[in-house]
Amino acid sequence: MTFSVLGFDPRDGSLGFASQSHFFGVGAVVGRAEAGVGAVVSQAFANTDWPHLGLGLLREGGSPDEVVRLLVAGDDLAAHRQLLVLDATGRSAAHHGGACAPAVSSAADATSVAGGNMLASAAVAPALLLGTPAPDDPPLARRLVAALRAGEDAGGDVRGSQSAVVTVVSGRRTATPWREVLADLRVDDHPDPVAELARMLPIHEGFGAVGAALFAAPLVIGTRSAIDPVQADAMLDRLAAAEALLGGNREAALWRAVVALRAGRTALGREVLAGLLRDRPALGDFVDGLVQVGVLAAEDLR
């Protein structure tokens, strides 16, 4: 009832998966990825323990082939299930039980593994494969979503589309893997969930810049005197690019103004802020509030 692709990007070590299904909220159940470890997807009549158990085995040093062998051996209903496993070096393995509903399809190449069931044809899985990226190809999240569209163009799920997910993590294995999530987008119920993922990706990228400014002191919070001018200029450039991605959503512009004012780029900050206040005068009270809590100073606004 689902098709998925797991991919590894040798350019930066990132890895992840994307799935589409005629099922509500496929992203909540189909798979998991962990930075520097790998990705595991269970589908068909899924065993929702497999992604968690599989990542544990990869974390302990198991190969994708070993993960598949151990998980399948421990499940009496494995004949009804599909399993896709990818490690942090791009190695992969797959299991497709003989009792999965047709059409069943699977394929793999040097950087990806794909599979599906209840498909329009066996051509779907090969259409999902990523191949080796060129240096100027888009980042992995965009390539995974494009792969889902290619799978749909090859026939897709014979029942249609309802939900989709794309998850990408970095290649860095750390004690805090939750900090290494590069993309985690889900469309739970939509007539064209893959198109909706594609629409959301630029917004996600734009808000990545906003989050980097907001949550990494001292650009927005913390001691202003600790702001590195080089870091501030780089963030201002990143937020300007985010404005273009976000279109009519002015969130990036707001925090670009704040970063500029805090970093001593006063003319730029006032110019951006003035444009925002012309478009949305109610923001004036919010800006005054930023002065009250110490994010900005009164002299920044004069």
From TrEMBL:
Pfam families: DUF1028 (PF06267). It comes from the Bacteria. Signal peptide: none annotated. InterPro entries: DUF1028, Ntn_hydrolases_N. SUPFAM superfamilies: N-terminal nucleophile aminohydrolases (Ntn hydrolases). This is DUF1028 domain-containing protein. It comes from Nocardioides simplex (Arthrobacter simplex).
